[in-house]
Amino acid sequence: MRPEEIQITDWLRIVLGEVPWIFLLEVVIRIAIIYFILMFAMRAMGKRMSSMLSRTEMAALVSLAAANGVALMDPSRGVLPIVIIAVVVVGVERFIAWRSTQDAGFERKVMDDMDILVKDGALQLGVMERTRITRERLLAQFRHEDIYNLGKVQRTYMEANGAFTILQYPDERPGLSIIPEIDEELRQEQKTEPNIFACATCGHVEKQAQKPQTICPNCNSQDWSPAVVS
Of 93, 126, 225, 230, whose CB has the highest number of CB atoms within 10 Å? Predict the structure, then answer.
């Protein structure tokens, strides 16, 4: 279509495009076929496709979606290529899944490995930077799990699929308050632990009679806050 043929008031072109009305019926048939192709492909790739996806499963799903879009909108394209693409994608995904069960090293190369984001109530800032997890993103996750004191966290793992696994100490432990500073009223309700201070950057705890003047051995910060236990 030449530029001079485009009219802003041409509602028929805007709504229908340049295809005949009968193509709308064909779209219904095409989407039904594509729907069953997708359902079959996801069923063939296993139950994980209905839960949290790994990076290979996400790539497979995006590949199927990208291939389906062209066949759905373009009347000159058939649906047979979608079947071929689905067979290839499913075959590759099932091979990766099978190979991963046979070789843990291969699984780590393809799926990546887990990372430890918190150890004994202290943020591992170097790991967080490498995995591109911000401090506020992680603290928000703790608050979502009803954790308001970083000292309560024994370990936090970032799984290969991007999910967080949080292990807590069974008893109360002093640590850095993770209630936002904007909520000063709630922060004041937390009980502070005498002679214990937490690094305001990573949460590392030191027992001293007064506020430490040294740098934090975990992150080299010099900013300390009174540790809280609730």
Answer: 93
